[in-house]
Design goal:
The chain is built from four helices and seven strands. By secondary structure, it is an alpha+beta fold. The N and C termini lie far apart (about 110 Å).
Length: about 160
């Protein structure tokens, strides 16, 4: 044992201390430049299975980077799907659904109180609209919520 101590003293053996890990400057940046968050308005007639198809993103895939997030919002307000881009090329993007928020079915059948009119989602401009069944004419549009359109329909039928 004493020989080992003498050898260590003679050669001045020092313990090698490993450096602590550090992050390199190019691995860090502002969130705005390192992460992309997208919001997409989805036609209410589309299903979740249709929007996770890689070809669905063909016209916009070139804008994506892997790990981007997409908030897919149904135009009628019925659902929000959170998506993560896994892999993308110029003409397609493979995505994964991370969560789904079901906000309720806002497009429903004609209210039981009305056979002459109906309320439908008509897109982001007209929004919810009251439509006459006999000729499909839009009587009133622009309602942000179905319940407001239903209330207008009830008042209209009373008059």
């Amino acid at each position: 044992m004493s020989e080992t101590l003498e050898v260590q003293r003679a050669f001045k053996v020092e313990k090698v201390v490993k450096s602590k890990p550090t992050i390199l400057p190019e691995k860090m940046g502002l969130a705005e430049s390192k992460r992309h968050d997208w919001v997409v308005d989805i036609d209410p007639s589309r299903s979740i299975d249709e929007i996770i198809d890689p070809e669905f993103w063909a016209h916009v895939a070139a804008q994506f980077d892997p790990l981007d997030t997409i908030e897919a919002r149904w135009e009628d307000g019925s659902r929000i799907v959170h998506i993560r881009v896994r892999y993308c090329e110029r003409t397609y993007a493979k995505v994964k659904v991370t969560s789904v928020e079901e906000l309720g079915d806002v497009i429903s059948e004609i209210p039981a109180s009305s056979r002459k009119h109906r309320v439908e989602w008509k897109g982001p401009v007209l929004r919810f609209a009251v439509i006459r069944n006999s000729d499909s004419m839009v009587l009133q549009s622009g309602f942000k919520e179905r319940s407001v359109a239903d209330s207008w329909l009830i008042e209209h039928e009373k008059a």
